[in-house]
């Protein structure tokens, strides 16, 4: 941004074009949240936390949050523009990614998670819907709505809404959890990139719940043994048994495609 302590309001943005070149001098994305809808599904506290966390992060694979402002009805987040848009749409279009493509994304994801964990931030909501792609096709983590800063982390039971697909056993069971929840999610993400569906998906949430806590994991025959090996090491029921991020970076399925 370059202009410290400047405040903005909606007039500074060419919103008619949705994504405009305004006072920032470069293209940004505006995320508009309606205050009356905010209370219903996430609450003000969670949005404050999201802004507080995301605005302090600087990593090539984490979407920048430059500024925010609000008026009577809305909260506006001024975000980095990710030119290739939503990753899940790319996945939908092609069905599943090649080993090479998936490995490159997982490498980028892992470096971003290492950075977050060094800052004591756990993301807790890694899934294709929360990932964007930059102009060069680089992955960008974009949603910090469920993230927590660990020293103050409220690691007890939190209300679970939406899909269970990416939740680790300890969160499904409402137990205490730590940064290793992101390792589990990384395993689920790797699987979904390669298969096109998350590993524990089922027709109803009760069945998904059962499959997660039982780590009921099966692989289509086209999955390479190296990919299988990495996924199995991440999808461990015991959080302490999951492969640490620095070792993910050294795994053959990662090093093979990320020279
Ligand atoms: N879609 C949702 N958020 C976006 C962003 N920041 N950039 C581009 N497309 C988006």
From TrEMBL:
Protein name: Aurora kinase
Residues bound to ATP: 23, 31, 80-82, 129-130, 143
Active site: 125
Domain Protein kinase: 13-254
Family matches, as CDD domains: STKc_Aurora
Top-level taxonomic group: Eukaryota
EC primary class: transferase
Gene3D superfamilies: Transferase(Phosphotransferase) domain 1
Native organism: Clydaea vesicula
EC number, UniProt record: 2.7.11.1
UniProt cross-references to SMART domains, sorted A to Z: S_TKc
Annotated family: Belongs to the protein kinase superfamily. Ser/Thr protein kinase family. Aurora subfamily.
InterPro entries: Aur-like (IPR030616), Kinase-like_dom_sf (IPR011009), Prot_kinase_dom (IPR000719), Ser/Thr_kinase_AS (IPR008271)
One cellular component (GO) term of this entry: spindle midzone
PROSITE patterns reported for this sequence: PROTEIN_KINASE_DOM, PROTEIN_KINASE_ST
Cross-link for Glycyl lysine isopeptide (Lys-Gly) (interchain with G-Cter in SUMO2), residue positions: 127
């Amino acid at each position: 941004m370059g202009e410290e302590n400047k405040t903005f309001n909606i007039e500074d943005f060419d919103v008619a074009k949705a994504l405009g070149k305004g006072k920032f001098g470069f293209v940004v994305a505006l995320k508009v949240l309606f205050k009356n809808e905010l209370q219903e599904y996430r609450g003000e506290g969670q949005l404050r936390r999201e802004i507080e966390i995301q605005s302090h992060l600087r990593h090539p694979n984490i979407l920048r949050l430059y500024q925010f402002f609000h008026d009577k009805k809305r909260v506006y987040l001024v975000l980095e523009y990710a030119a290739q848009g939503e990753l899940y749409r790319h996945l939908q279009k092609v069905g599943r990614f090649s080993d090479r493509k998936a490995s490159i994304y997982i490498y980028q994801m892992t470096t971003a998670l290492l950075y977050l964990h060094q800052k004591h931030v756990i993301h807790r909501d890694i899934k294709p819907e929360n990932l964007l792609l930059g102009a060069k096709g680089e992955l960008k983590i974009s949603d910090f709505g469920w993230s927590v800063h660990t020293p103050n982390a409220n690691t007890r039971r939190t209300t679970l809404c939406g899909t269970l697909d990416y939740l680790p056993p300890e969160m499904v069971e409402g137990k205490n959890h730590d940064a290793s929840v992101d390792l589990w999610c990384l395993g689920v993400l790797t699987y979904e990139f390669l298969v096109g569906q998350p590993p524990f998906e089922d027709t109803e949430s009760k069945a998904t719940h059962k499959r997660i806590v039982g780590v009921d994991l099966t692989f289509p025959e086209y999955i390479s043994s190296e990919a299988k090996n990495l996924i199995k090491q991440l999808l461990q029921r015991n959080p302490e048994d999951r492969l640490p991020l620095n070792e993910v970076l050294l795994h053959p399925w990662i090093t093979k495609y990320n020279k």
